[in-house]
């Protein structure tokens, strides 16, 4: 396996768009009550350029001569309310590897870069959200040391 992890570049847009499309499709297939296929590119080149330029976020690419995986991470501040300890944490919003590259340690490399990035910015912790249907993602994060701290519940009110 010859994969390097690097920061995304604006020139990666087309390849990253294809990876995000696959990730979005996975989520649409399993959460159709929430997600739809948009008519426009939800992450146009300007979105990528802004994320790359933002010192409070990073996009990592698994490069094997082409983009075979990605991870996005960002800093967030604790709510500005007296009961919260003033601090910031980091959130992994996306971590995706092309199916043909899974099981080769690519996700682990992407994750490690997210953690190192968060540590380097003084984040108190790293968190992520995983849909219940995504058992493999849950197992991946549990193996990386993540623990469940909260559960988000929903009750549909439609017919």
Features:
159 residues; 5 strands; five-stranded mixed beta sheet; 32% helix; alpha+beta
Offer a concise description of the structure.
32% of the residues lie in helices and 22% in strands.
How would you describe this protein?
With 159 residues, the protein is of the alpha+beta class. The protein has a single domain, classed as Gcn5-related N-acetyltransferase (GNAT) (Aminopeptidase, 3-Layer(aba) Sandwich). The chain has four helices and five strands; from the N terminus they run E-H-H-E-E-E-H-E-H. The protein has a five-stranded mixed β-sheet, with helices on both faces. Strand 4, helix 3 and strand 5 form a beta-alpha-beta unit. The longest helix is centred in the first third of the chain and has 18 residues. The chain is globular. The model has no long low-confidence stretch (mean pLDDT 96).
């Amino acid at each position: 396996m010859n994969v390097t992890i690097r920061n995304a570049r604006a020139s990666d847009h087309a390849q990253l768009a294809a990876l995000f499309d696959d990730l979005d499709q996975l989520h649409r297939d399993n959460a159709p009550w929430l997600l739809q296929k948009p008519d426009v590119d939800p992450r146009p080149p300007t979105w990528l350029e802004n994320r790359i330029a933002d010192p409070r976020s990073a996009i990592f690419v698994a490069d094997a001569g082409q983009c075979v995986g990605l991870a996005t991470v960002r800093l967030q501040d604790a709510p500005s309310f007296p009961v919260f300890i003033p601090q910031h944490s980091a959130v992994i919003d996306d971590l995706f590897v092309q199916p043909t590259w899974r099981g080769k340690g690519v996700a682990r490399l992407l994750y490690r870069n997210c953690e190192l990035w968060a540590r380097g910015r003084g984040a108190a912790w790293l968190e992520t959200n995983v849909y219940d249907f995504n058992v493999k993602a849950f197992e991946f994060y549990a193996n990386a040391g993540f623990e469940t701290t909260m559960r988000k519940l929903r009750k549909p009110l439609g017919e």
